[in-house]
Each structure stands twice: as structure tokens, then as C-alpha cells.
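Input C-alpha cells:
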């Protein structure tokens, strides 16, 4: 899911987004047991928005930025037809092999740990719904009210896959009619808000079809993804025309400074912005701030290596961290009685375990893929 780019700032934003999501899901376990828990990992929210929700917004932004910059480079070198073929192949290979293999590994783990109770739950689900899982749509459909075989990955994976499908179209429209697209996005977002309000996950409208609910969820995240395309196009053009380091640093500094000022205003004054709009605004502001910090901090080798390490495993972290957090917290009787210091130490331990298992999963997936490639190559060369 990660697009290799030349901007370390994007890698830094990605690493930050990973931690924001992990913090939210770790805190959610304690909040479920005690809504007034004072030992939560901080920050737990910014201007009234959960940090994990902002992390999701950041992930949509950087995904679009990476796709846009890569797509633009391929278009200029190979032409649109070849670029589309390459784009489709890379998207498929970056998502599904890892998803399928990790799903199998987690399913085995669930069977070993929960055995009969887990299998009994699965028998209540129509078998044909496993098709949702094969296409990575089970999480998005699950939060839309469907009962299926959702087991791993973030709920937004299905939305991201949908965005990947329409990305070439969005890219072309935004590139040719940027102002018109902003107007259309505003209309779509406002229309969606009149139906489900500020909820990412539709809470009302029980009579709405499943497809309609999924579309509404996608529209909720579309502004963040579209902003990433705008930023990618702008940065490509800006880097080509004004390539001096001094000018780039100046622009990054101005954008970051404006974002800091606006963020402080949001936090200190509590401006009565609709929650659904606040998520998009905060995502954009924090993106500019983190992007600037990343660009400035890339000269420090340790920070660069850590950020790249986290970013390279971000997809695997998103696939398995729920399972790890649930196991380490619910299987530890003392967890809910931890002091603030103990909770922070256990959080660090949990993060370490998440990255160890994510790294192991990455190695397993790569080895399985190499074996599959050798088998396919062998069949093609066999007489």
C-alpha cells in the first residue's frame, strides 16, 4: 500500500499516522471498561477528534499523494495505457497477497486460542459472504451493518480499494477541472452529512441498502483522498518549476506555520465546526505540520531509519494490530488496574510486539510470494 516516493516528509506522516491509530485502539480497550479512565495514552484526541480518526484521514491523504506522484511519473515516461496496466498490477500485488496470507495466519491463531467458540460464530455466517473477504471488502461492509468473515485489517481497507479503482478517473478530473471538482466534492460531502450527520459509520437509516451505506462511508473519506491528489499534483508541478531548496523550505515553512496557527485556534477556542468537517480540516492541517517536520528531520539518520522502518511495515501493522492488542489486553488480568506509568510501559511493550509480529508477517509473505513466483516460472519453462 505504500508508494515509494522521494519525499521523506510523506514517510514521516505515514509513521505518525500508524502510531495515532495504534494509540486509539489501545485506549479503546480501557475506555470500554472505564469511560472515565485517566490513564489513557496521550494524546487521545485533538480538538475533540480521536487521534486514530485523524490518523485514518492522514493515511488517505498520503496514499493519494504517493499514487499521484507515481502515476504522474509513469504517465510521462510510458504513456497512459501502459501506466494504467502497471498501476492496476501494483495495486493488486501491494494489497491482496499480504491480506490473504495474513488472514490465513490470523485465522489459525484464532482457532488455536478460541477454538470451538470462534468456529461456532463462523458457522452462523452464510458461506458465500467469504467473497467479501477475498476482495478485502469485509471490514467496510462489516461497519456498514453486515455480518461477515471480517477478521483482519482496518475498516477503511475496502474504501481504500474503491478509491484505488476510481483513482485514475479522479486524477484526470482533478488535473483538468480542479475548481469544478472542489465544488462537486463540497456538494457530495454536504449531501452525505444531511443523511448521516457527523458519523463516519452510519448510525441511522436502518432501511438503507448496504451498498448505499458503503458509498456514504466512502464519500466521508473522499475529501481527504482528493486533497492528497491535489497536493501531489501541486508538488509535482512546483518541484519542476521551482526546484531550489531554499524556495521549497520556505513554502513548507509557510504552510506549516499557517497550519499551526489554525490548529491552535481550533484547540483553544473550540470553534463550532461540524464534526465531519473538523476531521477533514484537522487531517489537512496536521498533514502540513508533520510533512514539514519530516522534511526538516530527515537529516537525522536515526529518525529517518525509524520512520522508514515503521512506514515499510504500516500495511502489516494495520492488518494485525487489532488482534495483538485484543489478545495482550484481554488475556492480562492486571491490565485494567494498571497505573498511568504501568499503562505507558505496557503500551510500549504492545507496540514492540506489534512490530515484531508485523515484521515476521512481512517476511512470511515475501517468502510465500517468492515460492509462488518460482512455481509459476517453473511451469512456464517446463516442456
Amino acid at each position: 500500500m505504500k508508494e515509494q516516493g522521494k519525499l521523506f516528509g510523506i514517510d514521516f506522516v505515514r509513521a505518525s499516522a500508524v502510531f495515532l491509530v495504534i494509540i486509539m485502539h489501545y485506549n479503546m480497550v480501557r475506555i470500554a471498561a472505564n469511560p472515565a479512565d485517566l490513564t489513557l495514552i496521550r494524546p487521545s484526541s485533538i480538538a475533540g477528534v480521536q487521534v486514530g480518526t485523524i490518523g485514518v484521514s492522514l493515511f488517505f491523504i498520503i496514499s493519494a499523494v504517493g499514487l499521484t506522484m507515481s502515476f504522474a511519473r509513469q504517465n510521462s515516461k510510458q504513456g497512459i495505457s501502459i501506466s494504467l496496466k502497471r498501476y492496476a498490477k501494483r495495486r493488486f500485488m501491494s494489497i491482496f497477497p499480504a491480506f490473504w496470507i495474513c488472514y490465513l495466519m490470523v485465522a489459525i491463531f484464532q482457532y488455536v486460542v478460541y477454538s470451538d467458540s470462534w468456529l461456532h460464530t463462523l458457522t452462523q455466517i452464510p458461506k458465500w459472504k467469504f467473497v467479501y473477504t477475498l476482495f478485502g471488502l469485509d471490514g467496510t461492509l462489516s461497519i456498514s451493518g453486515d455480518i461477515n468473515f471480517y477478521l483482519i485489517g482496518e475498516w477503511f481497507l475496502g474504501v481504500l480499494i474503491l478509491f484505488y479503482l476510481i483513482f485514475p478517473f479522479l486524477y484526470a478530473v482533478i488535473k483538468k477541472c480542479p475548481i469544478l471538482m472542489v465544488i462537486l466534492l463540497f456538494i457530495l460531502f454536504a449531501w452525505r452529512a444531511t443523511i448521516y450527520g457527523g458519523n463516519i459509520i452510519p448510525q441511522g437509516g436502518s432501511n438503507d441498502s448496504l451498498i448505499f451505506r458503503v458509498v456514504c462511508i466512502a464519500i466521508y473519506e473522499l475529501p481527504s483522498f482528493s486533497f492528497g491528489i491535489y497536493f501531489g499534483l501541486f508538488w509535482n508541478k512546483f518541484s519542476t518549476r521551482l526546484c531550489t531548496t531554499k524556495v521549497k523550505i520556505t513554502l513548507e515553512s509557510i504552510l506549516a506555520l499557517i497550519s499551526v496557527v489554525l490548529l491552535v485556534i481550533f484547540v483553544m477556542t473550540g470553534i463550532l465546526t461540524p464534526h465531519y468537517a473538523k476531521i477533514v480540516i484537522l487531517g489537512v492541517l496536521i498533514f502540513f505540520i508533520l510533512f514539514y517536520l519530516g522534511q526538516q528531520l530527515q537529516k537525522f539518520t536515526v529518525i529517518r531509519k525509524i520512520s522508514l522502518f515503521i512506514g515499510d511495515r504500516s500495511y502489516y501493522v494495520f492488518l494485525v494490530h487489532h488482534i495483538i492488542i485484543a489478545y495482550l489486553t484481554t488475556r492480562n488480568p492486571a491490565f485494567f488496574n494498571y497505573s498511568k506509568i504501568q499503562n505507558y510501559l505496557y503500551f510500549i511493550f504492545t507496540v514492540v510486539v506489534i512490530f515484531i509480529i508485523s515484521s515476521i508477517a512481512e517476511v512470511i509473505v515475501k517468502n510465500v510470494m517468492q515460492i509462488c513466483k518460482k512455481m509459476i516460472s517453473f511451469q512456464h519453462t517446463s516442456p
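The two ends are 37 Å apart (CA to CA). Confidence is low (pLDDT under 50) at residues 1-5.
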